[in-house]
């Protein structure tokens, strides 16, 4: 009797364990199916969103996206370097109607332009930290315009000096009013090299 009862109890325990395992397996299977369905639905939603984004018409870039002060500062520095190289050859600038009295002054101004051009190109690489240098360059542009335009009209330097002076005036205005707008700082902070100030 003892052996038969032990066998009966062992069979019941095995049956109950099998039922528990079967329940656990079915529960895990249902959870896996639910998670797989959620994953597939999320993938379908992501595909729908990407398709909607593809079907949306591309917005035209605004003026602020087209115009970047870093690029402007870089190319104005390259313009300075090119103008400095141009002034190194007296026969070349005389052919364009620029009447510099002696080559010495052309070389002196050309060296100055090469230096300021290198400064502007380097400043464009980290404009937020070096913006004050570019801001002060605007005053040099105003002085150049103040000297070149009258000298070209009345001083015998040549009429080509007039558009050069007007170009310096325009570049100086862009420096002075473009930097505060793009960097979000005031004129005083740029003038005193305090970019962290509002």
Beta strand %: under 5%
- Unreliable stretches (pLDDT < 50, length at least 5) are 55-63
Q: Tell me the distance between the termini.
A: 96 Å
Overall pLDDT: 79
Structural shape: elongated
List the total number of helices: 8
C-alpha Rg (nearest Å): 38 Å
Number of strands: 0
Major sheet:
none
Count of discrete domains: 2
Strand and helix order: HHHHHHHH
- Into which percent range does the helicity of residues fall? over 70%
Structural class call reads mainly alpha
Structure commentary:
By secondary structure, the protein is an all-alpha fold. The chain folds into 2 domains: 1-58; 70-191, no CATH class. It has helices spanning 2-55, 63-66, 69-86, 90-95, 103-125, 131-154, 161-183, 187-191. Helix 6 packs antiparallel against helix 7 (161-183). Mean pLDDT is 79; it is low at 55-63.
How would you sum up this structure in a few lines?
The protein is mainly α and 198 residues long. The chain is built from eight helices and no strands. The longest helix has 54 residues, at 2-55.
Which terms would index this structure?
8 helices, about 200 residues, mainly alpha, 2 domains
Task: Describe the secondary structure blueprint for this structure.
Blueprint: H1 2-55, H2 63-66, H3 69-86, H4 90-95, H5 103-125, H6 131-154, H7 161-183, H8 187-191
Helix pairs in contact: 3-5, 5-6, 6-7
């Amino acid at each position: 009797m003892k052996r038969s009862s032990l066998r009966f109890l062992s069979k019941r325990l095995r049956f109950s364990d099998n039922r528990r395992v079967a329940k656990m397996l079915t529960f895990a299977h249902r959870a896996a199916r639910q998670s797989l369905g959620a994953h597939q639905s999320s993938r379908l939603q992501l595909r729908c969103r990407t398709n909607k984004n593809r079907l949306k018409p591309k917005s035209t870039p605004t003026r602020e996206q087209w115009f970047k002060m870093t690029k402007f500062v870089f190319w104005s520095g390259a313009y300075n370097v090119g103008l400095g190289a141009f002034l190194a050859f007296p026969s070349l600038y005389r052919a364009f109607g620029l009447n510099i009295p002696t080559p010495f002054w052309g070389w002196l101004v050309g060296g100055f332009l090469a230096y300021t051009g290198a400064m502007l190109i380097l400043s464009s690489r980290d404009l937020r930290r070096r913006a004050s240098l570019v801001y002060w360059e605007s005053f040099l542009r105003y002085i150049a315009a103040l000297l070149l335009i009258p000298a070209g009209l009345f001083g015998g330097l040549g009429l080509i000096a007039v558009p050069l002076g007007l170009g310096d005036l325009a570049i100086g205005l862009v420096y002075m009013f473009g930097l505060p707008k793009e960097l979000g700082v005031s004129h005083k902070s740029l003038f005193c090299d305090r970019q962290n100030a509002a």
